Amino acid sequence: MFQLDLKSRKSIYEQIVDKIKELILTEVLTPNEKLPSVRELSKTLTVNPNTILKSYRELEKDGYVYTIGGSGCFVAEKKDRNTDKWKLEELKHRIQNDIMELQYLGLQPDEITGLIKQFIEKGVFYHD
Amino acid sequence: MFQLDLKSRKSIYEQIVDKIKELILTEVLTPNEKLPSVRELSKTLTVNPNTILKSYRELEKDGYVYTIGGSGCFVAEKKDRNTDKWKLEELKHRIQNDIMELQYLGLQPDEITGLIKQFIEKGVFYHD
Amino acid sequence: MFQLDLKSRKSIYEQIVDKIKELILTEVLTPNEKLPSVRELSKTLTVNPNTILKSYRELEKDGYVYTIGGSGCFVAEKKDRNTDKWKLEELKHRIQNDIMELQYLGLQPDEITGLIKQFIEKGVFYHD
Amino acid sequence: MFQLDLKSRKSIYEQIVDKIKELILTEVLTPNEKLPSVRELSKTLTVNPNTILKSYRELEKDGYVYTIGGSGCFVAEKKDRNTDKWKLEELKHRIQNDIMELQYLGLQPDEITGLIKQFIEKGVFYHD
DNA sequence: GTGGTCTAGACCACT
DNA sequence: GTGGTCTAGACCACA
Least CB-CB distance to A95: which of B104, B119, B125? Predict the structure, then answer.
C-alpha cells in the first residue's frame, strides 16, 4: 500500500494519515472502499495497532473516512468531508508561506506557476 | 511584533520561528536588521527566554539569521541562506499535498492558479 | 560509557557530543545501534536530561544519529551523514593550524607524519 | 594585518588569538618584533580595546608574546614558549579525532598524508 | 547589555 | 517507556 520512513521526524501516525489522505485525494482509494483493518495494516507496516487506530480516528475526525462498528473503516463520500472554513483559511495561509519560501529559494514566478499546474493536473476531482 | 496562539497545536517556539520567517520573507525585517533581544522578546511575548533562544537557533540553523555573541541576533543576507536541496523537495511535496486538498475542498483549477498568482505577487524577491 | 571533565573549558554538552562522535568514528558504536536513553545517560553521567537531549540533537543535526520519537536515538548509517563541504574546509584548516603548532613545539616532520600514519591506521573506515 | 569574521561563531578575541598565533607560527611575525598597540589594533579592526587586551593576555599566557609595561607587546623567542606537556597531548588527541573525521568523510589515506605534507611544508621551523 | 549553558522539575505526545 | 516542550531561575563569557 505504501511505505513508512521510520527515521523521519514526522510521527508515524501522522505519516499514515498523510499517505492515506493522499491516496484518497488521488482517488486511488474511492468512496465507500474499505480500508485495511487495523490489525491487518498494523501487520503489513509492522507498527503498533494503537498507532493505526489513532490514524484512523484522525482521518475520521476530518471526515475522510467513516467507521462502521464491527465491520471496518471506509472512505467517505466527498460531500461528507468537513469543509471547515477555518481550516481552509489555514491551508491557504500555509500555501502562501510556502510559495514565498519557494520564491526565496530562487524559483521564478513562471517556474512556480508551472509547478502548480502540474500539481493541479495530478488531482482528478473534476468529473462530478 | 506579532502574537502567539497558545491554543494552537504548533509549539510556541515553532510559531515564533514561522512568524519571524514570515517577517523576513515579506521583507518586513530586512537583512542585517537586529532582532529583538532574547530577553526583550521573551518579555513582550511573556514566554520563557529559553524558548525564544531555541527559536533563534532554529532560524540560525536554516540560515535566516546570524548571531553575534554578546551583541545580538541579525537578519541574514539572502546569499547566506541555506538552500538545502532536500528541503526544497520537501517544500514542493507539501505544497502539492495542500493543493490537492484545496481541490478536494472544491476549489476549481482557475481559482487555485489565481490564488497562487496573488501569493507570488505579494512576494517581493525580484529586485536583485 | 565515558567520563566527563567538569573542570574542562568545553561545555558539558559539547564534551558529550565529541565523545559520542568518537565512539561512532571508532566504530565502538555501530550503525543502527541504540544509544542510551536520554534519562538513562543523564543518570549515569549525573547530568540534567536537557543537557543530554541537546547533545543528541546536535549529533542528529550533523547526521551522526537519528531519532525515532518514543523509541530512542540510533547511530546513523554512514551514507546518511552530512558531508557538508564547508565543514570539511573548516576541518582541514583546524588540522593545518594544529600541525603548525606541533612543529612549533619541536616535532620534526617525520615524527609528525609518523604520528599521522598511526592515526590513520586506527581508523577503520576502508571496508566498504 | 588580517580580517575578522564578525558573523562567525568563534568569539572575536579567539579569532584574534588564532590569527596572531598563525602569523607567529608562519614567521610572518618574527621574535622580538613589536605587535601593534592595543589602541592601534582596536582601531584598525574596529573592535573594543578590552577585546584586544584579552587576546594579548591569552597569547602571553601561552608564551607566544611577552609584554613590557609601557612599551608594548612583543613576539617571544621560541624557547620561551610554554611547551606544556599536557597541552601537547591534548593537541595530538584533537588531531587524531580530526583525522578520523576526515577519513569518515571519505578521504583516502594517501590524500590525507598528502594534505599533511603540504601543511608541514607551510611551516618553516627547521632553520635553527 | 548580549547570547549561551545548565539545573530541576512539570507536562505532553508517541510507541 | 521514549523523546520533546516549556518554565523559572542561576550563572558564565563576550563586547
Answer: B119
Say if the Cβ atoms of C103 and D91 lie within 8 Å.
Answer: no
Contact at CB, D100 and C117, closer than 8 angstroms: no
Strand partners, C72: C68
Q: Which chain E positions have some atom within 7 A of a protein CB?
A: 1-10, 13-15
Q: How far is CA A94 from CA A90, B6, B98, D45, in A?
A: 6, 18, 8, 44
Q: Are residues C39 and C69 in the same domain?
A: yes
Mutate which: B103, B111, B113, B122, vs A, most A CBs within 10 A = B103
Q: Specify whether C32 is located in the same domain as C76.
A: yes
Q: How many Å apart are D5 CA and E1 C1'? A: 21
CA distance C105 to B55: 44
Q: Which domain holds residue C92?
A: 85-122
**What pTM was computed for the model?**
0.90
Q: State whether A38 and A18 are in the same domain.
A: yes
Digit-coded pLDDT (tens) for B67-98: 998 899 999 998 777 777 888 888 999 999 89
Report whether A4 contacts A47 (CB < 8 A).
yes
The Cα of B111 is separated from the nearest Cα of chain A by a number of Å equal to: 11
Q: A48 near A13, Cβ under 8 Å?
A: no
CA dist., res. A61 & res. A57, Å (int): 6
With cell 484518497, the residue in question is A24
CB within 7 A of strand F (chain C, 18-47): 35, 37-40
> From first to last of its 128 residues, what are the pLDDT tens digits of chain D?
789 999 999 999 999 999 999 899 888 999 999 999 999 999 999 999 999 999 999 999 888 999 998 889 999 988 777 667 888 888 899 999 999 988 888 888 899 999 999 888 876 554 44
- Kindly determine whether residue A7 and residue C69, on different chains, have CB atoms separated by under 8 Å: no
Helix (H, G, I), strand (E, B) or coil at A104: helix
Place of cell 588531531: D95
Tell whether D76 and D95 lie within a shared domain. no
Q: Are residues B48 and B62 in the same domain?
A: yes
CA distance C117 to chain D (A): 8
Question: What are the phi and psi torsion angles at A80 (to 5°)?
Answer: -85, -5
